[in-house]
Request: fold
Amino acid sequence: MGLPTPDTSHLCNPKYASVYEPAEDTYLLLDALENDRAELQHLRPTICVEIGSGSGCVSAFLGQVLAPHASLVLSTDINPAATEATRQTTGHTPSDAVFEQCRARFVQSLVPRLCGSIDLLVFNPPYVVTPSEEIDVTQEASAWAGGKNGREVLDCLLPQISQLLAPNGRFYLVVIEENRPQEIIDYLSAQGLLAQRVLQRRAGKEHLSILRFIH
Amino acid sequence: MRIITHNMLKCHVKNCTDPNKQFPLRFKDVQLEQVEAERNDEFLVRMLPRLDWPALLKTSKELGMGLPESIPENPGEDEEFLQAVHTFIMETHVKEGSMVCDGCAHEYKISNGIPNMLLAEHEI
Reply:
């Protein structure tokens, strides 16, 4: 039986106009997490972090995937409307998880405190190929504008991944082909992570994939 | 924001580098709220090694809340200890106020229960 998609109907409220609504990329990530449900339950993550949580759909879903085990699910976003939306979405999701939100870029302020302590890290980055100037130009754009190869934002985080993850910790990442997934896989493999493309799907002109890295 | 999250937040202003002062951030003018939650002992015991206990203790004293000086040998069997930790890190929410760095005096605001850890361009 499939897990229900978290309710994000409150996003129609104008105060959430700048928040990225769940779309095909979001749903592919949910599917990847659900596919790994047994393994994730076995891992029993204590600290989960979602970077750029937007609507909070993925954070909330994560709480359901891990239920009945409790976990701290800490969601960050630079957009205050997104942290607020995340709180609302996670707030009415039945789960044993402890949902917390923090307005921050990536994991800033959580490092170095959480280095080696994140059991599950999830990131659906702004992956769309755009001119570099479009990155963060508005709150809306920060959710999707990825600059050159759609990689400029992601590339700021990649060097930190292996230090952030706990032993056996996992990182799930959404990418499109333009982001050069193989290059990301090679880069993180060289840092000792076990890398795999676990799911892919074509959605309109986007060829989406979920990459999974295990420490 | 629950206290559990505060125990993970550190000042990240560029020229603020004294690790003894960047963490834990000191609460200022905070409005607290106790929200009752079901206690999950298995989760608390799993979380204990991930907490920075000295920092948590410092924060509890600052807020005038009771917390044992150290983690007992068998925390999972210590009812009183578990309840104290649960009440402090899971049920205590910070609604408004700020967190100040003792190193550089930067103030991180907490508004409507969500901390703002973003810095201006020149502070990064």
Summary: Chain A has a mean pLDDT of 96.
